[in-house]
């Protein structure tokens, strides 16, 4: 068990959002259509940290987003942008010429759980 079960991760995130009153700022069922940099409006230096957090002056990022339930599109300006994608996203598979000829199992690392399933097998690992 290398990773927490997804129910525990969800519980942690929900508790965190509740504790810091973040729920009113979260938009579920929403697709980001575009993120545009407006430039620094206060003459401050813009910073980009190693964890993907971008910040600058007041309202320097214009975000267009669409509510996937109502199809309503809105545009708002924000002072910072955090790019969040990672382990719990939908796996993406590359298109490899000739892969249709391969008859063995192909799994994404997102679904890998147990090395015993591959004991004694020849395994090829592709990717970063």
**Rg calc:** 21 Å
Overall geometry: extended
Span between N and C termini? Answer: 22 Å
As a percent range, the share of helical residues equals 10-25%
Structure description:
There is one protein chain. With 128 residues, the protein is α+β, with helices and mostly antiparallel strands. Helices cover 11% and strands 23% of the residues. It contains one helix and six strands. It has one helix at residues 6-19; strands at residues 30-37, 47-48, 53-55, 61-67, 73-78, 80-82. The strands form two sheets. It has a three-stranded antiparallel sheet with strand order 1-4-5, with no helix packed on it. A three-stranded antiparallel sheet has the order 2-3-6, with no helix packed on it. The protein is extended, with a radius of gyration of 21 Å. It starts with 5 loop residues before the first helix and ends in a 46-residue tail after the last strand. 2% of the residues are buried. The mean pLDDT is 81.
Helix and strand layout, with pairings?
Elements: H1 6-19, E1 30-37, E2 47-48, E3 53-55, E4 61-67, E5 73-78, E6 80-82
Antiparallel strand pairs: 1-4, 2-3, 3-6, 4-5
From the structure above, extract its key features.
128 residues, alpha+beta, three-stranded antiparallel beta sheet, 6 strands
Task: Give the gist of this structure.
With 128 residues, this protein is of the alpha+beta class. It has one helix at 6-19; strands spanning 30-37, 47-48, 53-55, 61-67, 73-78, 80-82. 11% of the residues lie in helices and 23% in strands.
């Amino acid at each position: 068990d290398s990773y927490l079960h997804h129910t525990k991760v969800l519980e942690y995130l929900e508790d965190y959002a509740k504790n810091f009153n973040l729920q009113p700022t979260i938009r579920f069922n929403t697709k980001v259509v575009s993120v545009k940099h407006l430039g620094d409006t206060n003459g401050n230096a813009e910073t980009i940290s190693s964890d993907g957090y971008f910040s600058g002056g007041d309202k320097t990022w214009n975000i267009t987003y669409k509510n996937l339930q109502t199809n309503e599109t809105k545009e708002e300006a924000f002072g910072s942008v955090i790019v969040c994608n990672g382990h719990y996203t939908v796996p993406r598979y590359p298109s490899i010429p000739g892969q249709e000829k391969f008859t063995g199992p192909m799994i994404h690392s997102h679904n890998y759980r147990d090395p015993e399933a591959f004991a004694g097998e020849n395994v090829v690992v592709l990717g970063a």
